[in-house]
Design a protein that fits this description.
Order of helices and strands of chain B: HHHHHHHHHHHHHH
Low-confidence stretches of chain B: none
Radius of gyration of chain A: 24 Å
CATH superfamily of the largest domain in chain A: P-loop containing nucleotide triphosphate hydrolases
Structural class of chain B: mainly alpha
Strand content of chain A: 25-35%
Number of domains of chain A: 2
Mean pLDDT of chain A: 87
Helix content of chain A: 25-40%
Oligomer: heterodimer
Strand order of the largest sheet of chain A: 5-6-7-3-8-9
Largest interface: A-B, 31 and 23 residues
Strand content of chain B: under 5%
Order of helices and strands of chain A: EEEHEHEHHHEHEHEEHEHEEHEH
Shape of chain A: elongated
Number of strands of chain A: 13
Chain lengths: 298, 274
């Protein structure tokens, strides 16, 4: 695999604030990486640095071997800004045609990409009449235009309804399938969980985690929660025996380390009739995110 | 490069047409030019010049105020506004340079301004010629007025981009542009007038004053139109300063300003972080 984006020790100070602090990341062809972090953690600054819109104080960034902001880097990169706004007086088709001309992609793709994002019917209406979701989809259409090697999507799902989100991720998968490396910053963890290959978490300008979901889970060592539904009247006894916490009349919660999970399950099933059911809750991205972004990680 | 400049110019022209800027600018020019032509037609008999000459003289005075104003109104939003709306960051993620964006916008805005000038002054000129006669000299003066007005507009478009690049927000840019207009069009002349009165015919008035005047694009515009036409000079009473300068001074100033201001705007634009 080839790295499309290489960030080495990137640093940026704004006033007294260290917005990027020795950030290193690599993104390969066709990889989907999620960039997570609180507001102000440096996600947008990092994207702007990759685009060459913001200059770094230290460190280097290479986009397909070229300097950010150079003609080559710009021609292989697509960008969807957060809450993108186009000129209200233009139609979707006119706006997209401009981008196609600037990208040198030829205007032949415009109509096809408008269909792909579901804007075929609204193509000749003014953008001023579009809903937020439609504007976002127009933004995505311009990402598709140049068949980029690298796509930077800043909060692409904000303000979208669930169906549009689903479609958006379908398009992202398609792009990745064609070899585009996609970097998505997002707050919507549940979607990112299922739809990305790798997760990087930024906290106060530093990368505090950068791995696959499985590895992050393993490294965090967060407990799996077992919810045990007991038979009538024995919840108190089960709670005492398993040293779990009683939740209500018939349920007991038990936390156990990932590696101890199977042993725990065997012990529980040996208890026979007293246990009616067991639900397993492995740590979710939300728990991981909280773990890494609040500084428990390192 | 040309392709990208034209793509930007084309979309800006569409925007100018769509948001009725072109229509408004043309209407304003037309109404003011027609009104002034008729209101200013009274002294025709006493001066012994045709009505078109008087009309051109009035419209010269009008254009000094209106051309910079319209140009600044078109230009102030160009960089700061786009940056605020988030469109600039996206635009710059494409392989288009800041210079290309600037020139593309400039071409579109200049075309709109030129259209408004030609329709406004042209219509008023035709009406004046039909009512009160015209000759080759007054027609040349009209043509010169239109061309120099477009040049004056070009200078202030570029100055507008400069303000837009320096200001952090569209509101700030609007404020800077209003100040700029006031300084170049009103305060500059008042200051010079005060200096001339204080100097009472001394070295400053005779040697320096005409040059200082020509350095301001709005005054250079006035000087050029006045110096080139005897009739216009007579009706505006500005001939003193105009004759003290070499013929090339005012045209040079008016031609240099758009280029210089565009270069400065490009430098200011380079520092904008969208």
């Amino acid at each position: 695999m080839v790295d499309v984006l290489t960030i080495r020790e990137a640093g940026k100070t704004r006033g007294r604030l260290r917005t990027l602090d020795a950030v290193s990341l690599e993104v390969e062809t066709g990889q989907r990486i999620a960039l997570l972090g609180h507001n102000g953690a440096g996600k947008t600054t990092l994207m702007k640095a990759v685009l060459g819109l913001t200059q770094l104080d230290s460190g280097t960034i290479e986009v397909d071997g070229a300097r950010p902001g150079s003609a080559h880097a710009r021609s292989v990169t697509a960008y969807l800004p957060e809450a993108v706004s186009f000129h209200k007086a233009l139609t979707g088709r006119e706006q997209l045609t401009l981008f196609a001309r600037l990208a040198g992609a030829g205007t032949g793709r415009v109509a096809r990409d408008l269909v792909r994002v579901g804007l075929a019917d609204a193509a000749d209406r003014r953008i001023g009449t579009y809903s937020k979701g439609m504007r976002q989809r127009l933004g995505l259409a311009q990402v598709l235009l140049g068949r980029p090697k690298l796509a930077l999507l800043d909060e692409p799902t904000s303000g979208l309804d669930p169906i549009s989100r689903h479609e958006l991720y379908a398009i992202i998968d398609e792009m990745a399938g064609q070899g585009t490396a996609v970097m998505i910053s997002s707050h919507t963890l549940t979607e990112v969980e299922a739809r990305t290959d790798r997760i990087a978490i930024l906290r106060e300008g530093r990368v505090v985690a950068d791995d696959t979901l499985a590895n992050l889970t393993l490294r965090a060592g967060l407990p799996t929660r077992l919810r045990i539904r007991t038979s009538e009247g024995v919840a108190e006894r089960i709670a005492a025996e398993t040293s779990g916490t009683r939740v209500n009349g018939v349920s007991v919660d038990l936390l156990c380390a990932p590696e101890a999970k199977m042993a725990e399950l065997r012990r529980l099933s040996a208890m026979g009739e007293a246990i009616a059911d067991i639900e397993m809750h492995p740590p979710r991205l939300e728990d991981l995110y909280r773990h890494y972004s609040q500084g428990d990680g390192r | 490069m040309i392709g990208r400049i034209l793509a930007i110019a084309r979309i800006e022209a569409t925007i100018t047409r769509r948001n009725r800027w072109l229509l408004m600018a043309t209407l304003i020019m037309l109404l003011f030019a027609l009104a002034l032509s008729f209101a200013g037609s009274a002294p025709t008999g006493t001066l012994g010049v045709d009505m078109l000459t008087v009309s051109v003289a009035s419209m010269t005075t009008l254009s000094v105020y209106l051309a910079p104003l319209l140009a600044l109104l078109m230009a102030f939003d160009s960089i700061a506004g786009e940056s605020e709306r988030g469109g600039l960051g996206l635009l710059l993620s494409y392989p288009v340079s800041r210079g290309e964006i600037l020139i593309g916008k400039f071409l579109a805005h200049l075309a709109a301004l030129g259209f408004a000038m030609m329709i406004g002054f042209g219509a008023a000129g035709i009406v004046a010629a039909l009512y009160g006669g015209a000759d080759a000299a007054s027609l040349t003066a009209l043509l010169r007025l239109i061309l120099t007005s477009i040049l004056l507009g070009a200078a202030f478009l570029a100055l507008g981009y400069l303000m837009s690049g320096l200001a952090g927000s569209a509101t700030g840019a609007a404020g800077l542009c209003a100040g700029l207009w006031l300084v170049f069009v009103v305060l500059y002349d008042l200051g010079l007038l005060g200096a001339v009165v204080m100097d009472s015919g001394g070295w400053f008035t005779r040697q320096l004053f005409p040059w200082v005047m020509a350095a301001n694009p709005a005054d250079a515009f006035r000087l050029w139109n006045v110096a080139a036409s005897e009739g216009v000079a007579m009706t505006t009473g500005l001939s003193g300063a105009a004759t003290a300068l070499p013929v090339w001074a005012a045209p040079l100033s008016l031609l240099l300003w758009p280029v210089l201001a565009l270069a400065l705007a490009r430098l200011a634009f380079a520092r904008v972080e969208p």
